[in-house]
Each structure stands twice: as C-alpha cells, then as structure tokens.
Write a structure and sequence with these properties.
Chain B: It is a multi-pass membrane protein. Chain B: Pfam families: COX1. Chain B: GO terms for molecular function: cytochrome-c oxidase activity; heme binding; metal ion binding. Chain B: Belongs to the heme-copper respiratory oxidase family. The complex is a heterodimer of chains A (about 140) and B (about 850). Chain A has one domain (about 20-130). Helix content of chain A is about 70%, strand content about 0%. Chain A is built from three helices and no strands. Chain A has helices spanning about 20-50, 55-85, 100-130. The termini of chain A are far apart. By secondary structure, chain B is mainly α. Helix content of chain B is about 65%, strand content about 0%. In chain B, helix 2 (about 40-70) packs antiparallel against helix 3.
C-alpha cells in the first residue's frame, strides 16, 4: 500500500510504503519464531519422545537448523535496513522533515533491531550447546 | 486611506478570531452541573482516570502499611493469618491492576492528544466507557476486603490453592472483577494505537513523533497480546469454579501449570507494560531538563520495540521451580538475559542526554535520578534471579519481594511521580511546590531504600514471602523492624506529595506558558487550558517544534494552521496518514453522553452478578448492556455528514467520511480482533498443552466430538462469511436486493453453523465436568458460539442501518467493519473444527 501524493520517482523522496514500517518488526519477529520453535520442539521432544532422562541430540540439530534460518533471515533484513539507512548523502540523526530522512530513520531502526535480534537468537541457540538432555 | 484599510482589516481579523474561538468554545464546551459526568473529552476523562488510579494507589499503600505493621515484630497478632492473606493479595492485585497499568492509560489519555496537537483521541466515548468500567470494577474488588471476602491467593491466584482450598467468593471477585478491568485496558489499547497512528499533526512523520508516542504504541501493542491470555485463563478458571469444568484439577486430567503459563504469558509482559510508559515519561523529561534533543532517538526506538518483543519470551522464568526440563529453563534464562540489553541501552541514552546538555535542576529530574538509581539496582538483581540455579535459592523468598519492588518502584512509581510534577501544570494550570517536592522525594527515596534494601538479606537468610508472621531469633527480627520503619518514612513522603497535589491553590498564580521551556507540542497548552486543546492544528517540521520552528506558538495561537475554526460547531480533529502524516480526513468526534457510563454499569452488572451466582440478574444486565451499546453505535457512529468534504484551512480540503481500511473504526475493529485472536490462541494453546502432558489426550478411541456435525458447522460459518462479503460488494454497487438477500442467508447460515458446532460435542455425549478433554473441546466450541452470536447481531445491525438510510453505497463503514469481523470469525471457526475434530484423527 502507498500513501497518497507520495512521489515515487524521486529517489530522495521514497514513497511511504507499509512494508518499510513492518520491516522494523521483522528482525524481532525472526527472534520470536526461533524462540517459540526451539521451545516447542524441545518441550514436545522431551514430553512425547525422549522422556525425562532422554538425549537432546536430534533437538540440537533441529535447533541448529532453526538458528541458521533465523540468522540468515535477520542478516537479510538488516541488509535492507542498512540500504535504507544509507540512502543518499544524509547522516544521522535522520531527524529532518523529509521523506528521505523518514526512510533512512526506519532503515536505521530496522538495522539496530536486527542487531539485537541477532544477539538474542545466538543466546537462545547457545542453550543447546551446553545442555544435552531433557533432565 | 491605506492606514484606515489596514486598521479595518486588523479589526476584522480580530473579530473573526473571536468568532472562531467562540465557535470552538461552543463545540468543545464541558457540560456543567450533574451533566459534568457525561463528559467524554480526553482532558476530563484523563483527569478522572488519573485521580482514581491514584486513589487506588493510596488504598493499596495503606494495605502495604498494614503488612509492614504486622511484620514489624515476631509473632505479632495485629492481623490474623486470614486477614493478612487478604491484605497482601489485594495489595499486589490493586497495585498491578488498578494502579500500575491504568495510570499509564490515564496519563496517555490526558497528555497524548496534546503531544500530537490533536483535539481529542478518535474514540472519546470509548475512553469514557473504559474509565467507568475501571471505576466500577476497581471499587468492587477493593470493597471486598471490608466484608472480609477479599481474595487470598496472592496476586497470581495459583490453583489448586485458589480452586480447592479457598472457600467463599474471594477468587471469583478477583477473577471477574479484574477480567472486567482488563476490558478497559483493551479499550485503552485500541484507542491509543489508533490515536498514535492516525491523529498525528500534519508533517509529524514517523521519524519525528515524540518518544512517548513510540513507547505507548509499543505498549498498547503488547497489551493486545498479553492481556487476552489472562482473559482466556480467567475464563477457564471461572468455568472450573462456577461449573466444575476441571481445567486445573489433576484428578480429572487438568493441570494447575496451565494457569501458571497463561498467567505469566500475561504477567511478564505486564511488567514491561508498566515499565515502558513510565520510562517514556523519563524520555520526555530528560531532554527538557538538559535543554537539548535526546541523544540516540533511534536507539531508544530500538529499546522500546526490542523490549516489546523479547519481554514475551520471559514468562516461564517465574516458573523455574515447577520442575520443567532444564532445556526449557535455559531458553527462558537466555531470553531474560537478552532483555537486559535494550533495557540498558535506553538508560545510557538518558544519561548521555543529561550529561551532554545544560542540566537544569528540578523536582521532576530529581525523581528521574532516583528512579534510574533504584531501577538499575532492581535490574541487576533481575539479572541474578533470571539465572535458574540462583532462582532456586531465592524463589518465593523476601529477596524476590525486594527485587520486584526495586523494579516496580524505580521503574514505575518514581517516574510517575516525576511525570506528575512535570505535567501537573498541563492539567491544572498551576505548578506544584518545589520545596514540598524535594521533601517528598527525599523521604520517599530514603524510606524506599530503608524498607527494601534489608529485604534482600531477609530473603537470603530464608524468610519466605507471604507468611503472616515469623518466630523470634531466626535473624529476621531487626531486618523486618528496619523495613517497617522505612515503610513509614516512605509513606510520609507520599503523604507530602498528595498534599502538594490536593492543597488549595486558588491564591497561587497560574504557571507561565511552557513552564519548563520544553520543546514538544504538549507545552503549547495555555495556562489554564482550553477544552479544545490547540487553537489550530500545526504543521510539524521537527522533533522539538517549540524549540526549532520560528514563531510557532504565535502561528498556532492565531489559528494560522489547520482547523482553526469550528464552522458547524461540531467537535472535529484531523486524521492523517500513518507514515508521513498527510491530512486525509476531518474526523467528527462525538460529544458528551451518559451512554458510556450506562454501558459500563450494565456490563459491570454481568460480571458482578455472576460473582454471586445471580445468573438471571446477570442475564438481564447483559441484555441491557447490549441495548445500550447498540443505541450508542446507532446514534453516535458512522454518521453521514451533511457534505462530503470540508476545507480545513491553508487551501486543503479533506473528506468528512472515510470507510474501509482508511477509517479509524476499521482500524479499531482490526486491532480489537487481533487481541481477540490472541485470547483464542491461548485456548488452543491449552488444548495442545494437555496433549503434551497426557498420554491419552485426545483419548483413543475417540470420544467425540462428532466429526460430521463439526464439519457441517465449519461449512455453514464459512458460507456465512462468504455471503457477508457478497453483501458488502452488493452494498457498494447499490444492489439492495442482493445485499438484503445475501445478509438474510448469511444470518441463517450463522445460526445453522452455531447449532451444528454445538451438535458436534453434544451428540457425542461429551460431559465437560467429567474430564479435562471434553471440557477443553467444549470451551473452544463455546468461544466460537459466543462469537457467532456477536457476528449475527452485526449482520442484523447492517440490514437495519441500510433500511433506516444510515448506511448507503457510499457511506458504508458498518458493513465494511462487519466484513472484517467475519474474516476473523471464519478463522476462529475453522481452527476450532480443525483442532477438535481433525487433530484427534491425525495423532
């Protein structure tokens, strides 16, 4: 969706598109999905398959896979964010009353949120490095 | 000749200015006499809301003093064990549900429109309804202690303690009273999200909005995902207590841990729902005190949004001691440590801003400094207890009591006190006393630390929380006495603060305009303020327009921006586009009414009568509530304007009516339904939770529900959905016959779908009292049935609207919003049937 009157042709005044706002939440959304998938997988594995003393070996590989997907996703989103942030010549703090600075600001915030999501996802993944059973 | 013309022109200007002000004044006039209570304007409702939340705070504070008095010495008999349980339960519940969350809604309703240069929020009557719900529910819950029937299970009300061991109405009062208040929180969340996204002043692009608005946007979004799980949990809990459906009873397959999950999926984000708005106040106060723009605006947005997400991954860190697998604990430890990152980032931004600017000493800044100091200490113990092995030692001890009070008082109460001193002139036109403020601060700061610092040691020595007394000689005696003395010092500070607010100020002159020399829009307010808020709605070009935009206040005051007039003497505010804030609509907002109050009284009746099992009275109250809400909708919403568009000044003309995804009502419906979906998802979570903990859930061989009936039910509901969409299209093309035909068929499909869904478990003879499996199936069906009933009323309402000429092909808000509701209805019914009838056949 595009807002009315936005000048789509001028690269310095990018249109106000919804996806630039949603992009902001995409990095943390990857973290959320990764967290939930890891938690649910481990919970079901321990409750239904492995039992209380069972090994987490399969779950480790699964969570390793989730982590790879999540981190690649976060890196992709941060690349989009970075490109938005670097549009044109302007530098931080992106507080001018222009479509360009609005665009750069959303890109910069996306980038920062991806950084946080990356670290938080690695934190979650580290748990299966240290814990090997359902105990 | 020229001079005379000039003079005439100026005179004309002045008289026009006076005429415009008179029209604005008439449109926004606050009702007088007993009708004052029909006011819905944000300034009135915001003030009532703030005052009432503070009253609840003082009430819960008195309860805290009773607790500390009882614990001052060992083997004390000041309170009985029974009364003590009621006192600490109400203290926690009232502080959390009736002060900490509502105060942010109250503040936001009061100051957010001013911050956005708006005349009001888009749904003033909804705010008023929310306030009255809050007042009625709050008085009901608090009043219970005077009849010795207050809840006793602690503020998280764990079963089986509160299902099997507590006689009486206490738990019902807690569940129903607080569920009712959660309705008002959801109403506020809808209001605030739409307010921030759609009522910003022209030019206030998303990179220029005040940080307060960013925080509130995040928090309101969090409410949509955090409160509904508790509402779902309350529903299960009440079904168990009132009807004996055994969701939490292990003898019949239930599991008390489900309540803990649902409660903390709400409860942990709630800590951040409390903390973020308070820190948002800090984000407004610090730049003013430093007299410079905030450092790291983007970083603070990162902190707000990041915390909003990660705070949902922390819930089970309240459940470390329940015996979950180590790996699950580790996930929650990891997330709990990660949330410290964004929390720390914003604190560094505030410190950097304060240090980089010209620091002006003031009472608000004193409270902010105290808040940061206390909160950082609470945050550090939080990082400690987030680590499972440490928590095993500290769990349910006074160490936790110390930690949570450091977090909540540092993270919420002190910033709120700062906000009170800072924003008070906006509400009253007068400033609070600096001398009294300093006294209040130092007494509160010292008293707080004297009370709660020793509790860390009391806890580490082994004193459990929630015990009504303790033996002498265990090492607790002196520490407890010190805590009690501290609590009284703290209370004296609070009394001074309260006195400063309520002391007569008639002789005190009004504060000068923008008393703190702030840069943000809310300080355009006149001292005293006008009910219409701003004289004209300005064009914004900076994050701090009062500092950066030349002649800004003069231009606003002279009505040189938008909507400087109310030509039709109607209440109007500007709706702008979400990202770049371009004017897209002139929204007529409704004026004073008692309908919101009556709707709250009747909906309150449903909850309150149900508590006492007076189901007939509850039913009558519910019907009256429904009628009131229908009258409210019929007379006050989606009104067809007398002309399609309006000149709002500066040569801009915008429509007076928008429907579909451009209308604020559509947004409100969408946001409400997101919240609704998260409650439904919590019930589905319950089903799968039981699947993971039981070998025989769903039972094999299948006990039901009947798959055919369930499928027919889903088919009918999907048919009703498709027909409702067809009716929407037909209405837009003005084909009346198709419209009515489709809606009549849709209504019939809706009824048939409801009956078939009911027949699914009914024909299989599933008895919800016998075991948790049938109870879980029934609760999902029940949820769909209630929503189908609402969907049916909506369909009939749309037919009536068109018949009455209140909805046309062009002015079609009603059917567009109803179609949106039906999208979610279709999802609800489909998921229900897939889960109850499909899943047993998959496993």
């Amino acid at each position: 969706m595009t807002e009315p009157d936005a000048n789509r042709d001028d690269p310095e005044t990018p249109a106000a598109r919804w996806h630039s706002l949603w992009l902001l939440t995409l990095g943390p959304a990857f973290w959320t999905m990764h967290f939930l998938a890891s938690y649910i997988t481990a919970a079901i594995w321990c409750a239904k398959f492995a039992g209380r003393a069972g090994s987490l070996e399969t779950v480790r590989w699964l969570i390793g896979g989730y982590t790879a997907v999540a981190l690649v996703g976060i890196c992709l989103v941060s690349w989009f964010g970075y490109r938005q942030h670097k549009l044109g010549q302007a530098t931080l703090p992106h507080d001018a009353d222009t479509a360009g600075d609005r665009h750069r600001f959303l890109g910069f915030s996306t980038l920062l949120l991806c950084g946080l999501s990356f670290v938080a996802t690695v934190y979650i993944a580290l748990t299966v490095v240290f814990i090997g059973t359902c105990e | 000749m020229t001079d005379i013309t000039q003079e005439n022109l100026e005179q004309m200007d002045r008289s026009e200015d006076e005429a415009q002000k008179a029209r604005l004044k008439k449109a926004w006039k606050t009702p007088e006499g007993w009708r004052y209570w029909s006011a819905v304007n944000n300034t009135e409702v915001g003030r009532w809301y703030t005052a009432v939340s503070f009253l609840f705070f003082l009430f819960a504070g008195v309860l805290a003093l009773l607790i500390r008095t009882q614990l001052a010495v060992p083997n004390n008999d000041f309170l009985s064990a029974d009364l003590y349980n009621q006192v600490f339960t109400l203290h926690g519940s009232v502080m959390m549900f009736l002060f900490a969350v509502p105060i942010f809604e109250a503040f936001s309703i009061l100051i957010l429109p001013q911050m956005l240069g708006a005349r009001d929020l888009p749904f003033p009557r909804l705010s008023a309804y929310g306030f009255w719900c809050f007042l009625i529910g709050g008085v009901f819950v608090c009043g219970s202690i005077f009849f010795q029937v207050a809840p006793q299970g602690g503020w998280f009300m764990y079963p089986p303690l509160s299902t099997q061991y507590h006689e009486g109405l206490g738990a019902d009062i807690w569940l129903l009273g607080l569920s009712f208040i959660e309705v008002s929180s959801l109403a506020a969340a809808v209001e605030l999200i739409v307010g921030i996204l759609k009522t910003r002043p022209p030019g206030m692009r998303i990179n220029l909005i005040p940080l307060y608005a960013w925080y509130i946007l995040v928090v309101a979004g969090m409410i949509l995902f955090a409160f509904p799980p508790l509402i779902a949990g309350d529903l299960l809990f009440e079904l168990e207590r009132l009807l004996g459906w055994p969701f939490f009873n292990p003898e019949k397959g239930g599991d008390p841990l489900l309540w803990q999950h649902l409660f903390w999926i709400f409860g942990h984000p709630e800590v951040y729902i409390i903390f973020l708005p308070a820190i948002a106040l800090v984000a407004m106060i610090v730049p003013t005190a430093a007299q410079r723009p905030i450092i790291g605006y983007g970083w603070i947005v990162l902190a707000a949004v990041g915390t909003g997400f990660i705070s949902f991954g922390l819930w089970a860190h309240h459940m470390y001691a329940t015996g979950m697998p180590g790996i699950s604990l580790a996930f929650f430890t990891a997330a709990s440590e990660a949330v410290a990152i964004p929390t720390g980032v914003q604190i560094f931004c505030f410190l950097a801003t304060a240090l980089a600017g010209r620091f002006v000493h003031s009472v608000p800044m004193l409270f902010v400094s105290g808040a940061l100091a206390i909160f950082v200490l609470g945050g550090l113990t939080g990082v400690m207890v987030a680590i499972a092995p440490f928590d095993f030692q500290a769990h349910d001890s006074y160490f936790i009591v110390a930690h949570l009070h450091y977090v909540l008082i540092g993270g919420m109460l002190f910033p709120v006190a700062a906000g009170l001193y800072y924003f008070y002139p906006m509400a009253d036109g007068k400033q609070l006393s600096e001398r009294l403020g300093k006294w209040a601060f130092w007494l509160m700061f010292v008293g707080f630390n004297v009370t709660f610092l020793p509790m860390h040691f009391t806890g580490l020595l082994g004193m459990p929380r929630r015990v009504f007394t303790y033996e002498a000689g265990l090492g607790f005696d002196l520490l407890n006495l010190i805590s009690t003395i501290g609590a009284y010092i703290f209370a004296v500070g609070v009394v001074i603060l309260v006195w400063d607010v309520v002391r007569p100020k008639k002789k005190q002159p009004h504060a000068r305009r923008n008393p703190w020399n702030a840069g943000t829009l809310e300080w355009l307010v006149n001292m005293p303020s006008h009910p219409w808020s701003v004289r004209s709605i300005p064009i914004i070009k900076s994050r701090y327009p009062l500092w950066d935009q030349p002649n800004f206040i003069r231009d606003v005051d002279e009505g040189r921006f938008y909507l400087g007039d109310a030509a039709e003497e109607k209440r109007e505010t500007l709706i702008t586009s979400t990202i770049d804030a371009r004017p897209i609509q002139c929204l007529r907002v409704p004026g004073p009414t008692f309908l919101g109050l009556w709707a709250a009284v009747f909906t309150g009746g449903v909850f309150i009568f149900s508590t006492y099992h007076w189901y007939v009275a509850a039913l009558i109250s519910g019907v009256l509530g429904l009628i009131t809400i229908l009258i409210w909708l019929w007379t006050g919403t989606a009104l067809i304007p007398e002309k399609p568009a309006k000149d709002i000044g500066l040569g801009v003309t915008v429509p007076l009516y928008l429907s579909g995804d451009k209308s604020v009502g559509w947004w409100a419906m969408f946001i409400t339904m997101i919240g609704n979906m998260s409650a439904f998802a919590s019930l589905v979570f319950g089903y799968f939770f039981f699947w993971t903990v039981h070998e025989d859930f769903p039972p094999d061989p299948s006990q039901g529900p009947n798959a055919l009936w369930s499928l027919v039910g889903a088919g009918c509901v999907l048919g009703a959905w498709a027909l409702t969409l067809l009716a929407r299209q037909a209405n837009r093309k003005d084909r009346a016959a198709v419209f009515y035909g489709a809606l009549i068929l849709a209504a019939l499909c809706c009824v048939a779908g409801g009956l078939a869904l009911f027949a699914g478990p009914y024909s299989s003879g599933l008895d919800p009292k016998s075991h948790v499996y049938p109870a879980t199936v029934w609760v999902l069906v029940l949820w769909s049935l209630v929503h189908l009933a609402v969907g049916l009323i909506m369909q009939l309402y749309c037919m009536a609207r068109r018949l009455a000429g209140r909805m046309t092909a062009e002015y079609d808000i009603d059917i567009r919003n109803v179609a949106l509701y039906w999208h979610f209805m279709a999802i609800t019914a489909t998921v229900t049937v897939v889960v109850i009838a499909g899943f047993p056949r998959m496993v």
